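Design request, tokens follow.
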């Protein structure tokens, strides 16, 4: 017994006032201040029963009076302590048994139960619920309707005094007596052989004729154990002088149980003043003894049998049994035994709900790992400190909150201090916040926020950083010269080093590697950073960083295997490829955490994480999102659309106050409709959330309609919420073009359109009109007709692009050397005394050009390079070999030279096969346009006029408009046409897709229908 029972009853006329005073003391947390104990509240709070205040003479008949009374009282007549004690002593549940009262009121039965942790209660009335929560803070209580009560465990015992004779609607539209519904719910929540003990009106199930249907329903669910008549004046303390009641016992049915039918005859009659101990012993011996033995015998064996039916991993069941035994034997943990066992029971018995999708079920269902984790957490509590009656302000990961260290303390927290205060709200607003003990931290966070959010355009150089950069120099051992930063580079780095996070968007060839080295050395020397990690694609790490760092005499560790992590010393540069990061993700994350995040991250070629679903993007975010300093470097932060910037933004700012969503509205196109709709941004003024939800929000805030090969001009390419995006870019990204860094423009872009011959046009037209006949020669079937149909259009586009690059690579072509290849050969011939580079995209196209070039120039060296056949080391050696050739031809796939292999001495670059965006193509041709280049660089785009390449060029132009906005340049398409040398009427050459009246799709080309 937790609280001693007082025999003195509260006078009927003072009950209402007493209840209200006690509730005030509970709500305000002042009960202790006025000397009111939990025992006082247990004995003095009597609930709403008998306090309706209605008079019989005010109603036409007793039925109306009774209904009005029920509506106010809602059946709330608390069970007298003597009857609660009788039930508890008769059942004698062990401490590890799960006991529930499904309409618990203020928890009258709970006072006599052995283990508070294993008590479960549901109560609709908020006042009674508050009292029960105060009296039994460790019990598992829910404020709600019994009809929607779904506890996480099943019970050994259900006890209760349900509301009497209320008519309740249930799910199937049936109206049922409240006490009968209580029995139904108990049967649903009890374990097999579990016992139900409840106090009901003497009239309940008292007539085998009028109650026959209800009796049969009970017999289908339970085995009847017996019932005892109770004194009719039991509720006199609530103003009810005479009301016949009885105590019934039922056992939930299980396999192998000998079912006892219901009998109306009462087994025993109790009168006022009965001896509780003696009567409880009689009930236990004559009515419950066999049922309790059956429950104990089958309580856990049934679960073990269920577990054996599941496909469990080896050793799992042994681990569970071992940990459950340890919990049961430990004096501090044994009260948690029932809850842990019920968790295991749920794992053994749960099934997928019919209305739940499998994907959702796979996330929510219990697994072996979840079960073991639950048991381990419980075992860890054996050394936990006892609860303390104190309230303290605590800082969590992303907010501050007042925390109560006991149930009593939690109830005493003022309402206005219960809600957490997010960190982003504290640092991003001008409000005066008071957080005792955390003033210094808050001031630091606010200073960092203000510094990080200053636009680069308004910042001035820091003299101390400026002096360091002025003196910064490296010795180039290969070329025997001193390397220094120029004025523009020093200015940008000065501003970048004043912040912890930023993106250096310098065009290719502008010295990003040198800037990264300077940034790493400064932070390790001046800002107490242990190491500088350099993450980049393998070709950049191996052909650039692994070359320049030893050349400059700088200490570094190249992590190629896990043992290399042990070699890292303070002040080292740590090189790691994106592929290895994905392989060693878990170990590196642990290593980074060990050093307290005191690391500087340089993510070179950060546009490699533009796809947030890729392994490399997830790995970089997982390992380095909490680093102290981060510098991202890339020539272009986007390739195709603005949403590609979101993962880089998340890496820098970690979804903190520095990346708040200030877009007032978000946009989307309705499915199957061209109508653009918008709605208010639900995250306005809050950090952009992490992962997919944040990417969707960023896209809906800023992303224009994606351009497809067939969708040119059908929807606008507006950038939505451009001001909000410009604000983010202004404080995050420093953009420089190659001419800005170098001080001059040395690139010239030339368009070289060629025309189809009759044979070339014939095979091109065949690919458009008779693609189904050609398809099987170039594309394998997936084995799924539906998937094949979905891929048909993209495969047709791919084949058209291949024919446009080199028509002779398809077997249907009957002509000689294609026009485009002849034009490339002519250009190569014009530069017979110069080294030239030719970049294609596919090996089969490369082979065709190689054959033509070797035939045309038998005395001229042709160097063919692909990623699959030429190693990194061979590509590095090629620099010297190609230069020594004098007039060699470098024929390569564009992706084999995407970064870090530089040929600054090559002045003529020919691109006969286009990529889907200029970002990818510029990564190739900027290998030849370098910081130390002095001569003009000519880039030639050779395309078939009137082919699908016209569409591809228009798509590149439109994407470039978006990319230039990301670089701080708001320009129109006409200017981009001039920059790329596009001087013909492109729109008249475009192809697009249309649908005819029969619903079939066709490709149209200009004004002429081709297919």
């Amino acid at each position: 017994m937790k609280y001693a029972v007082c025999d003195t009853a509260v006078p009927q006329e003072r009950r209402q006032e007493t209840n209200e005073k006690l509730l005030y003391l509970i709500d305000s947390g002042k009960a202790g201040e006025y000397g009111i104990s939990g025992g006082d509240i247990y004995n003095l709070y009597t609930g709403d029963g008998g306090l309706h205040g209605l008079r019989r003479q005010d109603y036409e008949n007793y039925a109306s009076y009774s209904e009005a009374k029920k509506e106010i009282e809602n059946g709330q007549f608390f069970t007298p302590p003597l009857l609660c004690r009788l039930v508890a002593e008769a059942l004698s549940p062990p401490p590890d048994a799960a006991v529930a009262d499904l309409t618990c009121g203020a928890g009258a039965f709970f006072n006599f139960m052995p283990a508070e942790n294993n008590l479960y209660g549901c109560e609709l009335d908020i006042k009674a619920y508050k009292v029960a929560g105060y009296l039994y803070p460790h019990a598992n209580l829910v404020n709600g309707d019994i009809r929607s009560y779904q506890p996480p465990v099943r019970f050994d015992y259900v006890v209760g005094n349900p509301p009497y004779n209320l008519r309740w609607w249930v799910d199937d539209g049936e109206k049922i007596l409240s006490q009968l519904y209580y029995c139904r719910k108990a049967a649903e929540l009890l374990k097999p052989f579990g016992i139900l003990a409840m106090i009901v009106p003497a009239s309940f199930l008292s007539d085998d004729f009028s109650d026959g249907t209800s009796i049969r329903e009970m017999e289908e669910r339970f085995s009847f154990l017996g019932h005892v008549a109770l004194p009719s004046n039991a509720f006199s303390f609530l103003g009810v002088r005479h009301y016949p009641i009885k105590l019934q016992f039922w056992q939930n049915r299980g396999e192998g149980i000998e079912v006892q039918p219901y009998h109306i005859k009462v087994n025993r009659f109790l009168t006022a003043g009965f001896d509780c101990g003696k009567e409880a012993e009689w009930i236990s011996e004559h009515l419950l003894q066999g049922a309790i033995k059956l429950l104990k015998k089958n309580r856990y064996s049934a679960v073990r049998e269920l577990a054996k039916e599941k496909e469990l991993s080896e050793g799992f069941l042994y681990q569970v049994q071992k940990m459950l035994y340890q919990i049961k034997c430990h004096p501090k943990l044994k009260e948690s035994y029932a809850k842990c066992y019920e968790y295991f029971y749920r794992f053994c018995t749960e099934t997928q709900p019919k209305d739940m999708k499998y994907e959702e079920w796979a996330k929510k269902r219990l697994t072996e790992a979840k079960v073991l984790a639950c048991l381990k957490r419980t075992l860890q509590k054996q050394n936990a400190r006892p609860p303390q009656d104190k309230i303290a302000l605590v800082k969590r990961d992303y907010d501050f909150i007042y925390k109560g260290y006991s149930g009593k303390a939690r109830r005493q927290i003022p309402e206005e201090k219960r809600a957490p205060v997010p960190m982003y709200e504290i640092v991003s607003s001008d409000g005066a916040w008071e957080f005792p003990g955390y003033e210094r931290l808050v001031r630091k966070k606010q200073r960092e926020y203000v510094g990080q959010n200053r636009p680069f355009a308004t910042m001035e150089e820091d003299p101390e950083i400026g002096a360091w950069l002025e003196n910064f120099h490296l010795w180039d051992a290969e070329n025997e010269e001193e390397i220094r930063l120029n004025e523009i580079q020093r200015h940008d780095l000065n501003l970048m080093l004043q912040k912890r996070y930023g993106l250096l968007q310098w065009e290719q060839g502008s010295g990003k590697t040198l800037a990264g080295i300077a940034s790493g050395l400064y932070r390790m020397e001046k800002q107490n950073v242990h190491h500088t990690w350099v993450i980049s694609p393998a070709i950049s790490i191996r052909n650039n960083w692994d070359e320049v760092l030893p050349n400059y005499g700088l200490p570094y560790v190249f992590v190629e295997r896990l043992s290399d992590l042990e070699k890292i010393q303070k002040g080292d540069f740590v090189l790691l490829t994106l592929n290895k990061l994905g392989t060693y993700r878990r170990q590196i994350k642990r290593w980074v955490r060990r050093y307290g995040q005191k690391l500087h991250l340089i993510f070179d070629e950060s546009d490699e994480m533009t796809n947030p679903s890729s392994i490399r993007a997830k790995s970089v975010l997982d390992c380095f999102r909490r680093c102290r300093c981060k510098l991202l470097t890339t020539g272009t932060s986007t390739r195709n659309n603005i949403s590609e910037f979101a993962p880089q933004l998340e890496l820098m700012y970690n979804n903190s106050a520095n990346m708040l969503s200030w877009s007032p509205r978000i946009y989307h196109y309705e499915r199957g409709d061209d109508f653009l709709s918008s709605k208010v941004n639900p995250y306005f003024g809050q950090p952009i959330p992490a992962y997919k939800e944040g990417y969707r929000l960023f896209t809906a805030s800023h992303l224009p309609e994606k351009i497809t090969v067939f969708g040119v001009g059908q929807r606008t390419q507006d950038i939505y919420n451009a001001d909000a995006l410009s604000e983010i870019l202004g404080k995050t990204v420093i953009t420089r073009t190659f001419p800005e860094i170098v001080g001059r423009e040395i690139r010239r872009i030339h368009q070289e359109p060629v025309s189809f011959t009759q044979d070339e046009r014939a095979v091109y037209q065949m690919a458009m009109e008779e693609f189904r006949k050609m398809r099987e020669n170039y594309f394998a079937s997936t084995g799924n007709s539906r998937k094949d149909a979905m891929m048909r259009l993209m495969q047709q586009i791919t084949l058209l692009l291949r024919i446009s690059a080199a028509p002779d690579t398809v077997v249907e072509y009957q002509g000689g050397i294609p026009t485009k290849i002849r034009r490339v050969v002519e250009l190569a011939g014009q530069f017979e005394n110069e080294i030239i580079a030719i970049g294609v995209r596919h090996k089969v196209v490369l082979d065709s050009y190689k054959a033509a070039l070797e035939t045309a120039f038998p005395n001229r060296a042709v160097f063919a390079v692909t990623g699959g056949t030429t190693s990194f080391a061979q590509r590095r050696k090629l620099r010297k070999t190609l230069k020594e050739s004098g007039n060699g031809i470098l024929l390569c796939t564009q992706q084999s030279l995407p970064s870090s292999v530089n040929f600054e001495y090559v002045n003529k670059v020919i691109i006969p096969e286009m990529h889907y965006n200029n970002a990818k193509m510029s990564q190739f041709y900027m290998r030849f346009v370098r910081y130390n280049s002095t001569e003009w660089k000519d880039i030639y785009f050779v395309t078939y006029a009137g082919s699908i390449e016209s569409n591809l060029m228009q798509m590149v132009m439109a994407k470039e408009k978006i990319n230039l906005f990301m670089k701080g340049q708001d320009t129109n398409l006409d200017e981009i046409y001039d920059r790329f040398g596009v001087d013909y009427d492109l729109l008249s050459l475009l192809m697009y897709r249309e649908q005819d009246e029969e619903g079939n799709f066709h490709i149209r080309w200009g004004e002429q229908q081709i297919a």
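Comment from the thread starter after seeing the answer: thanks! Residues 388-426 form one domain.
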